[in-house]
Amino acid sequence: MIIYVMYHDEKSHQKAIELCQEWESNLKLIIQSIEKTDQVEEYLRLDNFHFSPINVPCTPFLESGTYLSLLEKFDEWKNEDYVGLVTYSIIDKLTFFLKKQMSLNWFTILKETYKKKADAIGIFGLSFCRSNTIISLLEGSVFQHGYNYYNAWRSLLQSMGYTMDKIDYDNDLGIFCNWWFTKPVLLKEYCLFLIKAMRNVNENPKLKDIFERNAHYETGNINEEKKMELFKKPYYTIHPFVFERLLSFFLAQKDNISIGCVTKMYMKL
């Protein structure tokens, strides 16, 4: 298993390195402790766990742009049992989202993954609620970001050959933040899917215009100068929000695959 830890500048690069070292150290202690009293399955041995920083390209797709770099590293992970992505800030964000101190025990996570024979595992699953009723991811996303979101979502997926019954799917649990891991064959397929989507947005003038519209996101921590650098606009554009949710759409199109979540949360809108 290899987990890539995303970073975007020198400061976050150092934090990513420290997080990789912390997880490796914790795993070593857990495995050494177990080995004293019991035999550890081959797939759970220390040399089967790898953590590595990976840079997030400076694009309006934000973390979703990392899949370009990930595909370039295909030879590093093609023979792994599982490979995935998290961000350097994952522990702080999970703690904030779930309102309790969080940590990730990769030994337990992978052990349960093998036990359940899962094809993909999300670290952070999210469902939207209104009036105490769970609503679809699409409806929740439109509620958050307005019609600009739906226009972008529909237009992009139509350009990729999907019909409206697929586009307006009613999945009510999404994997967010690009925190997930999966089998290499599925990850490569998703990388290619996402790269095609990015190419469509960048090369189709109509899509480009739609995605450059305001996402009405006021709680982000990117300053005005950085927004202009990333989005060429003084606001968050639609790009990162549609592309973050494409993972859940992609997985929902797959038949006969097992998907799980480490943590789940319900967000009231």
What does this structure look like?
This protein is α/β, with parallel strands linked by helices and 269 residues long. The chain contains 12 helices and 8 strands. Strands 1, 2, 3, 4, 5, 6, 7 and 8 form an 8-stranded mixed beta sheet that branches. A hairpin with a 2-residue loop joins strand 4 and strand 5.
What's the short story on this structure?
This protein has 269 residues and is of the alpha/beta class. The protein has one domain. It is built from 12 helices and 8 strands.
Main attributes?
269 residues, alpha/beta, 17% strand, globular
Report the β-strand fraction as a percent range. 15-25%
Instruction: Give average pLDDT, whole number.
Output: 94
In total, the number of strands is 8
**Shape annotation:** globular
Query: How can the largest sheet be summarized?
Result: 8 strands, mixed
Helix content: 40-55%
The helix/strand class is: alpha/beta
Question: Roughly how many Å is the radius of gyration?
Answer: 19 Å
The H-and-E topology, N to C, reads as: EHEHHEHHEEHHHEEHHHHE
Number of domains: 1
- State the separation between the terminal residues, measured CA to CA: 36 Å
Number of helices: 12
Low-confidence stretches: none
